[in-house]
Amino acid sequence: MYISQQLRNNNIAEYLLYMWQIEDLLRAYDCSLTRIRREYIEKFDYSNEQKEEMTDWYGDLVRMMNQEGCRATGHLQINKIVMQQLIELNAQLLDSTQFPFYTSEYYKVLPYVVELRKRGKNMDEPEVETCFNALYGMMMLRLQKKEISPDTEHAIKEISTFIGMLNDYYLKDKKEGLKFEE
Predict the structure, then answer these.
(1) pLDDT, tens digit (0-9, with 9 covering 90-100), for 110-124
(2) Of 5, 101, 129, 148, whose CB is crowded by the most CB atoms within 10 A?
(3) Cβ distance 132 to 163 under 8 Å?
(4) CB 23 within 8 A of CB 65
């Protein structure tokens, strides 16, 4: 909860990946708030008040997962909205001639996206979402201490650079507003 609040304001890309991880965490505890409280929240060195706040936050997420039908798979609507905002911003940046470095990075990453789509299930998935799925998949591989090929490492590095640029433009747009020429 505290991490998500900080990330939401400072790094939307990391926020989204973190929230996907939280969804998986809740699934690992079978969306049982009792188990989450006992087996997860209690391990933190927080005050009782902080633990209650965390329990409420996780409880809200569990309720949303149940209501939105993503208890087993999929993403919460709040996370889908963030993804949609990033997809729309990506389209605006690419449609404008004002962001040549961003456009260049996009075309640098596009072959990796095409390759990932061939391997995946969803050929119609937006490029930005494919990039996030690749980053999340890499995160999971690293957590499992699985071997990662140099080619995959290189692709993820390029994707990270691209998503980092998108993140920076997202934050700039939220703080100052990007001005797109017509």
Answers:
(1) 999 999 988 877 778
(2) 129
(3) yes
(4) yes
